[in-house]
Amino acid sequence: MRPFRKTLAVLTAALTITTLGTGIAAAGEEGSGKAVLRYTEHGIPHIVAKDFAGLGYGYGYAAATDNVCELANIYLTVSARRSKYFGPDGDGYPSLSEAANNLHSDLFFQKINDSGVVDRLAAQPAPQGPRPEVRQIVSGYVKGFNAYLARTGRAGISDPACRGADWVRPITEQDFYRHFYAIAITGGQGVVTESLFTAPPSGATPAPGTAGQLSDQVKKALSGSGLGSNGIAIGADSTAAGKGSVLLGNPHYPWQAGRRFWQSQLTIPGRFDVAGASLLGMPFVQIGHTADAAWTHTVSTPVTFGLFEVPLKPGDPTTYLVDGKAEKMTSHDVTVQVRQADGSVKPVSQTFWSTRYGPVMGDFQGVPLPWTAKSAYAVRDANATNLRGLNTWFELDQARSTGDIVRALSRTQGVPWVNTIATDRAGNALYADIQVVPHVTDELAKTCSTPLGQGTFAEVGLAILDGSKSSCQWGSDPGAIEPGIFAPSRLPQQQSRDYELNANDSAWLANAKAPITGYPHIVGDIGTERSPRTREALLTAEKGGFTTDSMKKMLFTDHSLFADLTAADLAKLCASFPGGLAPSSTGSVPVGPACAALAKWDHTYSLDSRGSLLFQRFAARLGNVDRFTVPFDPKQPLTTPNTLNVGNADVRKAFGDALVELRTAGLAPDARLRDGQAVTRNGERIPIHGGQGFLGVLNVMTPVWDPARGNVEVAHGSSYIQVVGFRGTACPDSSTLLTYSQSANPKSPYFSDQTRLYSRGEWVKERFCEADILHSPALRVVVLR
Prior knowledge:
Blueprint: E1 24-27, E2 35-40, E3 44-48, H1 52-78, H2 82-86, H3 102-115, H4 117-123, H5 132-152, H6 173-184, H7 211-223, E4 228-234, E5 245-254, E6 261-268, E7 272-279, E8 287-289, E9 293-299, E10 305-313, E11 316-322, E12 325-328, E13 330-339, E14 345-354, E15 360-361, E16 375-381, H8 389-396, H9 402-412, E17 418-424, E18 429-432, H10 442-448, H11 451-460, E19 464-466, E20 493-496, E21 499-502, H12 532-543, H13 548-555, H14 561-576, E22 581-582, E23 589-590, H15 594-600, H16 612-622, E24 628-630, E25 642-644, H17 649-664, H18 673-676, E26 678-681, E27 684-687, E28 701-706, E29 710-718, E30 720-726, E31 733-738, H19 753-759, E32 764-765, H20 770-774, E33 780-784
Parallel strand pairs: 1-33, 3-6, 10-19
Antiparallel strand pairs: 2-3, 2-33, 4-5, 4-21, 5-29, 5-30, 6-7, 7-8, 8-9, 9-17, 10-11, 10-16, 11-12, 13-14, 15-16, 17-18, 18-20, 22-23, 24-25, 26-27, 28-29, 30-31, 31-32
Helix pairs in contact: 1-5, 7-11, 8-9, 14-15, 16-17
């Protein structure tokens, strides 16, 4: 019998609870929605309702309880009001765009809001617009959020980040849809936000940057966004028992602000039952499992936007030519309200220009893409009409098999910029990069790329096409849900009984024994060097014999493949320096106990490992130097490249500079990781294990280095982690951990409780089935009516 079909005697009407004996609290608005929140250990809510509106209501209320300030900040951002309350300066909320400050953030989002694109999409029926059940969830979510705010009032908010703040307000469904849209375009318009602040030429303009410069900045923009992940799907043949499956979901997301995950279980008895986590404010499970299938996502390699270079009419820089015919650019004046230094609020305006392809853009993160008297560049975002992802995750939340997952991805075509890795009860493992991808075939790129685009497409998959020819616009497939994107049948996917995985490289080696080829170059490369993290994942998966316990242990072993490849050579190099003095940028530096520490190091980033901090700082300083003597061999992708290039002067200097860094921070060369890597929560120092992805550590932690103290915060890394096993019993064998805990509110008991668990290497045993929930010693019930 399925877990959600078991008797829910105490929840028959999802309204009244009389038998739990755990203390019942009532909250909410009469008639606005009906749900029951059953909190288990660490503040994880199991939300039960009779219908989808009630489910959304419970989610909205519970999410606001934990994170009302961060959610209010999100809605302030997408409504383009940051400058009104905070002034024009500040960081512009990087969770939703690359805007340099509040003013540019507001102008960017007001431009979107003025266009009406979100309202038009939300008004459409499925498949382009939300399906009816999604609309019900969204309506309930908005009412639940507002019910919490009405109950507490601004003055009653406990979080000091927004207590009493006049920018905290009730929200509308429009706010919600704007938020999801902002997430969808994060990898497109969100990346090029600053580039849109350009104007027609009025004088001399610089030459465009090179393909190498632009490709490097695109790589940096997409990889430096704080988003990454591991997903490992173990099929029946690679489990210890030879049946069932095991899934590791390990997204590496920011620990602060609007890209935090929040965990829940959502249940409509007999109809809907799913557990996992979603980004703040998304009332669905985006990474999680049902009773029979589990899935996770990893950030994928396709560049989801592209550029068009348009020739301009002589003497008129706002008129461009297509097929020899003149077309006038459209201009739009965007106005936002901006708080002045004296406290007054005044309007500020900006003019944006657009072509048939999309907005005109200028320099991209320091690389010149000038709007000259002869040509201009326009950007097209493949997710510019994507509200479909809401339907995607709603359908994933009902999956019973990996086949269901493929069908949901293919039918809705709403995943904006991630791969999907999944398992099911039958023992199948799935990799699928069924997402929104610009329909730029290799043939189109060859025929239509500009000289600059020939280089960027080859290097990073960024298409820059000739906008003077209508024949050079993005193509389409019969199976695509809209023109301009690839159909699911053209995108890489693979199922096996062995394993499938991804660690942010392309689809090529989702399984080392069954390489995937034949997909368009814009989707990703083939036959190229894999990152140390991907190689670590593949080498681990190849061993087989997995259980849920061994998967959890493997992740928290914090093993570094890059250390396996180079640490022994580095220890020998250390011991070879004349007089025990290593070269550095500031002169010679004594190696002290560094050589012995490296020689004895176990190559892990566990808290008590010695040598790990030194190696971390060394590897961080290597940059793009020629680090290996044995080059990459596509016939041996798991073992090459290797062997540290100790003869390279830059490698030797990087080691000396790492020694200087540690000593400046008051850390010995043989310091333990716990001595120099921690976060502080409410005055408590919590050591953090794990290491950066470039170290080949699966349990990624990207720390913030303070030159005087060492690693003092986590920028991004392991966030919501799940290990889900299907092994024959009706209830999945699942464990989870939300590394930064459920609440961003320092006054909450769930502000850092799971962070301490993480520090100790412990997990939360998930309570998915009814009996497990009812037997929680921490069970607390809140009835919303």
